[in-house]
Amino acid sequence: TTKFTSALDIPVEFIQKNVKLRGKCHHVTEKGLEVEHIPISIPLITAIQRKWQSKGLLLVRLAGVELAPGGMAWLQQELKPKQTVWFQLLGREDSALECLVVVNKGRFLSICLNEEILRQGLGRAARIEGLHHDSRLYWKLHKRLLRAELKALKKHKGIWEEESYSERVRNRVSNSKFVQTLKQCVSW
């Protein structure tokens, strides 16, 4: 029922047990998502607690994802202001939380933003900070992220997009020494 306003407020046991928390996403920044934690509400107690709760936002990073330039723009477009997200705690680094972030899309559909970014080709799979390499959860999540990245690679999406045949030929011709020499002669 406690509202967390800083990553350091969250007990170590929560991170070790990979607890899922709920929050409202306020901003998407270069550092990560700024999320306001929504504590579990108990009708009478919650009304009393709200008076003393401080305000603050948690910095949530997408664990195992290295964003490409288009990734942040996609996140800003995908996450509406004050949209509710679920974030599973995987680790804490300074004042930031490494998390799996899930967004509900309708009643029965939800997407993991970490996987979706990789599936769209808007980032690369990276090491999941905060989890031990020998843990079962680390390898389970890392495998999911690599599969999502492989889908983008196979479909040539995002950063994995390849030039068309005509573009490759045009680039080779324009960069050839003969064409460069011809351009120099014409410019004199």
TrEMBL record:
It is a single-pass membrane protein. It is found in: Membrane. Coiled coil: none annotated. Keywords: Acetylation, Membrane, Transmembrane, Transmembrane helix. SUPFAM superfamilies: Staphylococcal nuclease. Signal peptide: none annotated. GO terms for cellular component: extracellular space; membrane. It comes from the Eukaryota. InterPro entries: C3orf33-like, SNase_OB-fold_sf. This is CC033 protein. It comes from Eurystomus gularis.
